[in-house]
Amino acid sequence: MAISTQTHQLLELINHYPSPHNGQPIVVELVDKTTLRLYFDRARGLQATDISYLFSYVSMGVFAEHLQLSGKALGHEIALTPTLPKESELRGEGLVPFAQATVKWDASTPDGALQGVLEARQTSRKKYFEGPDAVTAKELETIAAEESMSLVQLDAKATQQAIWLNQRAVFDDLFDEPVRQELNHWLRYSKAEKETKRDGLSYDCMQINGGAMKYVVNHPKLLRTPGIGPILKQYYLRTMKDSSSVFYMLAPFQTEEQSYEIGRVVMRIWKRVAEKGYSLHPFGTIMSNVAAHKDFAQIAGIEHESREKSYLVFIFRMGKSKPAVRSERIPYQEHLLKKESTS
Ligand SMILES: Cc1cc2nc3c(=O)[nH]c(=O)nc-3n(C[C@H](O)[C@H](O)[C@H](O)COP(=O)(O)O)c2cc1C
User: Is any atom of ligand 1 closer than 6 Å to the C-beta of 62?
Assistant: First the structure.
């Protein structure tokens, strides 16, 4: 099918969506002029821990929200019907459909400012020189509350503890072999590797020297070597001892649908953060690392965490930072757009 200019612009914009490890797991099929089918590419999702599978629906929800926002920015209305697969279907490789979208082209006036926000939104792992203002913090809490989720800002002491905890979780994960291997698969250790593959977590986005990062990921025992471990810890933390604030979100997290809804809210929050001139840095490792998750709940004073009603689903630090290094994207023609023959 020939791609119209409108479809091209939409695909270019949606290709900016954020994804864990920058795995870029979504594939879009152009079924006809107004219908898109959305797929999740299992090989590009995270699979190293059991909870990773449920978190994949967060990625789908993030994409779905980003798609609708992209449509709005370009003056199109996009209606979505989720057709979420069962969690067990996310194991393995290949594409699995998760939603159908209907596009009403030119249904509204394009919103250039929104387009700019979606293009500018980033993860910043730099030092934050200013935390969020009270009005913005309240707005973010409201976005979550509108979907019966709660977003809470930590106080200054707990914020520092959470930042330290994130570092501990990131380092500890390197001793969990499946997690280490998955991270190694997605880390991009040099400029050449980053620019050739155009996905994954690149050393410069991570604010870490590529050679050192590669050496440590391949020799994690260094992290527990007296004299060296503390230096590496301080090096990792140097961009995080700052003026940022840490927030966490609680939501029901038992079903595929609940996880998908969380993703939609995460993207709404991220959009508002970018709109107000702020950046954020998700602390996903705390959620997936069992010990860190438990310790975070204690730091935050969360007493009765339950998957049915109220579970820790998103943690991030937020504030103003200098512009972060841009993460790469594979051109949409090569990965986002479904080829006729793949299924
Ligand atoms: C659901 C979700 C979880 C994420 N978790 C982490 C995380 O734990 N640590 C981190 O540094 N970045 C995390 N990220 C940020 C991604 O790595 C980032 O979105 C991706 O590399 C693309 O970069 P960009 O956001 O600058 O476009 C997460 C993103 C999403 C959508």
Answer: yes
Please give the average per-residue pLDDT across 110-127, as a whole number. 97
**Angle between helical axes of 5-14 and 50-73 (0-180°, round to 10):** 140
Distance 107 CA to ligand 1 centre (A): 32
Which protein residue has the closest C-alpha to ligand 1 atom 12? 282
Q: What is the residue with the minimal CA distance to atom 21 of ligand 1?
A: 22
Rounded to the nearest angstrom, the gap between the alpha carbon of residue 33 and the centroid of all alpha carbons in its chain is: 30
Q: In this model, does residue 342 exceed pLDDT 80? A: no
Amino acid of residue 264: R
| CATH, range 5-121+327-335 | 3.40.109.10
Instruction: Quote the pTM value.
Output: 0.96
Stretch (H or E) spanning 103: strand 95-104
Q: Is 61 in the pocket of ligand 1 (CB under 6 A)?
A: no
Answer CATH for 128-321 from 2.30.130.40, 3.10.180.10, 3.40.50.300, 3.40.109.10: 3.40.109.10
